[in-house]
Design a protein that fits this description.
The chain has about 150 residues and is an alpha/beta fold. It is built from six helices and six strands, in the order αβαβαβαβαβαβ.
Length: about 150
């Protein structure tokens, strides 16, 4: 009897640890509309928003940011995102973009974080600007793909 209880206790502890590892309760992501002409992609799809929301994150997506990719504002709201204006999306602690921000957009990031395909060796002027303002840069070119999330 004790071994069954012990096994159940260990299983429950493992589940608790897994849940704690995936907690993103302090993460606030901002998704501005892409500014490059002809760029129709969006940094987060409603499916990604749903997964992040379930893990505790807050997602602020600029109104109409997903329309070019076929994702309506209604889909984002159903997935758990909050629709915001452009300025609010850019004020988020972590900004997610498909394309690298322009130098003007980089100024909006200030000393917060950005996740994008920055290409730091190609966009040296942008990188220097972001570093000068003490922004944290997550270049998607250098992150390992993980299908579990």
């Amino acid at each position: 009897m004790l071994s069954v209880l012990s096994r159940n206790f260990v299983k429950q502890q493992n589940k608790n640890l897994q849940a704690q590892r995936r907690k993103l309760t302090n993460l606030v992501l901002g998704v501005p509309k892409e500014s490059l002409e002809g760029e129709h992609r969006v940094a987060l799809t409603p499916v990604h928003v749903s997964k992040l929301k379930k893990a505790g994150a807050t997602i602020q997506i600029e109104k109409d940011a997903g329309l070019g990719s076929g994702f309506t504002d209604e889909l984002y709201v159903k997935a758990g995102a909050t629709l915001v204006d452009s300025a609010s999306a850019w004020k988020s602690p972590l900004i997610c973009k498909v394309r690298p921000p322009t130098l003007e957009e980089a100024k909006k990031i200030e000393n917060r974080s950005v996740m994008s395909v920055i290409q730091p060796r190609v966009n040296t002027e942008l990188m220097n600007a972001l570093l000068a303002q003490k922004a944290t840069v997550y270049s998607m070119v250098h992150l390992i793909y993980n299908s579990d999330y």
